[in-house]
Amino acid sequence: MICTCLYDKCEAFALKLFSPFTKKLKQLPMKKLALAVALLIGSTSLFAQTGTKSDVPAANIKSLDGKAFNTATINNDGKPFIIDFWATWCKPCVSELNAINDDYSDWAEETGVKVYAVSIDDSRTMNSVAPFVAGKGWDYTILLDPNGDFKRAMGVNVIPHTFLFDGKGKLVSQHNNYSPGDEDRLYEEIKKLTGK
Hints:
Blueprint (H helix, E strand, L loop, with lengths): L1 H16 L4 H6 L2 H21 L9 E4 L4 E3 L10 E6 L4 H21 L2 E6 L9 H8 L4 E4 L4 H5 L7 E5 L5 E6 L5 H13 L2
Parallel strand pairs: 3-4, 4-5
Antiparallel strand pairs: 1-2, 1-5, 3-6, 6-7
Helix pairs in contact: 4-7
């Protein structure tokens, strides 16, 4: 009894779902119809699983000019990118970003890498970020995270904290703190990702 009821409901659902093809469906044996529905559902879930989802979590922060910015949109058109958490008062952060900046134009030209430098300066020091960056001459995309939402979402406890992502947004490596030469190791990882 349950089987027959389930069979009837399945058949009615399939007929409604494929109404443009109703005449042809009515001519198909139920086993073939059930197999076609199962294959359709299976292939849909397979395609949904193989889509590329970035490892960058969504958080609402600000761009340097004060506009809203959702971090889920961070990408680099299929090329690697770096997210570097820093602050104006953090000497190792500034040293690392200065060191990267020394070769950044060459890095970008050779590998296409892009740097997103995320300031965690709070509301007391946030207004000093733009003049600070201008004085350094950094050519990065500067983002502001004064409430620490993105920092928490990325699990950052100590700055500088640098994340390297591949062109699909998958996290490849990360390190915190800075020692001279870290930028060279980072660039070697970038070149491996791009085959350079």
